[in-house]
């Protein structure tokens, strides 16, 4: 038998819905649609309640615990990022840096990987996976990563950076790699 929730303290946060964005709430699941695409996410149903009231998404939590307040802020930030993603999108720029061996970067959209060849003169290429519906473009020594999900864009950039991480050598001397510029 489940006991009814004891309401001790209700904390609330609001996220305004911008023009051209459609938001659907089903329990703890939220779906945000906009001109660039659709994002869907599910949150912990026992900690928060989601509702749409007066052109705003209301996020509500109950309880006095510090964790509940922190989770409320996290959910609010995720919803804000979803709305920004479907309207503006997210973008990261990376730069390819090498001292002696020119690094060649290719994108295989079919396999959703980034192939990094001739890194430090290695014979075998290194690979980094592309997460979600993120688009990766290579122009000269710059790599542009774009998408509607902030997490997917950031994880794709991290995968590329980690693929060129040099181990067991001094990073001040061996600075070859691919780095995030902005």
Verbal overview:
The chain folds into 2 domains: 10-87, Alpha-Beta Complex (Outer Surface Protein A, domain 3), CATH 3.90.930; 90-180, Ribosomal protein L6 (Outer Surface Protein A, domain 3). It contains 2 helices and 13 strands; from the N terminus they run ββββββαββββββαβ. The protein has helices spanning 66-87, 150-163; strands at residues 10-16, 22-26, 29-34, 37-42, 48-53, 56-62, 90-97, 104-108, 113-117, 126-129, 135-139, 142-147, 177-180. Strands 11-12-7-13 form a 4-stranded antiparallel sheet, covered by helices on one side. A hairpin with a 4-residue loop joins strand 8 and strand 9 (113-117). The protein starts with 9 loop residues before the first strand and ends with a strand.
Summary, kept brief:
By secondary structure, this protein is α+β, with helices and mostly antiparallel strands. It has helices spanning 66-87, 150-163, and strands at 10-16, 22-26, 29-34, 37-42, 48-53, 56-62, 90-97, 104-108, 113-117, 126-129, 135-139, 142-147, 177-180.
Please report the number of helical segments.
Answer: 2
* Contiguous runs where pLDDT drops below 50 for at least 5 residues: none
Question: CATH class of the largest domain, please?
Answer: Alpha Beta
Shape: elongated
The total strand number stands at: 13
* Secondary-structure arrangement, i.e. CATH architecture of the largest domain: Alpha-Beta Complex
Structural class: alpha+beta
The sequence of SSEs as H and E is: EEEEEEHEEEEEEHE
Strand order of the largest sheet: 11-12-7-13
Estimate nothing, just give the exact number of structural domains: 2
Function: This protein binds to the 23S rRNA, and is important in its secondary structure. It is located near the subunit interface in the base of the L7/L12 stalk, and near the tRNA binding site of the peptidyltransferase center.
GO molecular function: rRNA binding; structural constituent of ribosome
Family: Belongs to the universal ribosomal protein uL6 family.
GO cellular component, one term: cytosolic large ribosomal subunit
